[in-house]
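[step 3/7] fold_predict: job queued, chain A
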Amino acid sequence: MKLQIKERIFTQLAQRAKVDSLLTHSSMKIGGRNYLIPQFLGFRCRELRQPNFNLQREQYLDRCLKAILNFKSGAFLDVGANMGQTLLKILSIDASRQYFGFEPNIECCFYLEQLIALNQIQNCIVLPVGLSNRTGVERLFTRQDKSVTASLVKDFRPDSFYSSSKYVDVAVGDSVLEKLDLAGIAVLKLDVEGGELECIEGLEQSICKYRPFIIFEVLQHYLAVGNTNLDESVIQFRERRLRKLEEHLDKHAYSKFQIEPDGKLVNVTKIQPGTNPDLSRINYLAVPHEEEKGFFRFLDKSLS
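[step 4/7] structure written:
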């Protein structure tokens, strides 16, 4: 998206959200510094009007993130940045780390821009685009005010799960990263609600070039929101995509590890989601084969 278009959209959003009517901002201490968390009246989405950031959530990821960022130099790429939940975690671990967030939901992207500007964070950039294996305009399916469940993959959940959709920009990841002229990538984090396959396919050249650690979610074959089972057709759809994703990781010589609730990494040859609401075992780490021994030696040493 051209810069002029991006600025025009943000200007329109600012007018719609009545930025000058900023109600208040809460203060959150992160990594020894107080950060201001903005709250806006004009957003329809409750999450954006009254953000509730909880750095204690998914604490089991913290050990993994700290180890990788201490082990490997390079930028942190947050694909599916949402409102900045992961950004705040990175600031608590390494505030000087270069951060790039990719978020197709323009309201979330606007909120992130305001969060960064309000705190004068210099090393973080947000792009209002979804990373995919194609460039164009796609539908983003959403559920009421739950922006965290928005997905570009229509059949990832039953049609009845979503209440609306909007058109957003997507682009081939490799073409986007080429413009950023990165010196290196330490971590590629995917939180894209079923769109992991398209992300990986669109980033194949970058994966070969930068060999990042890849953190990604594989949700259970179950609807935690609503506590209902998935139809067999939806499960089979997810399974086919998951097997293709694993094929790509194998092709690029990555080992897969499940991130356990206690932060431990368990090697898996085949990812097998459960059919229950447990969300504590849905995160995985893919490690380049050539980095595996060195990384685990470093991890063991850091814990001793």
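[step 5/7] annotate
The two ends are 47 Å apart (CA to CA).
The chain has ten helices and 16 strands.
exit 0
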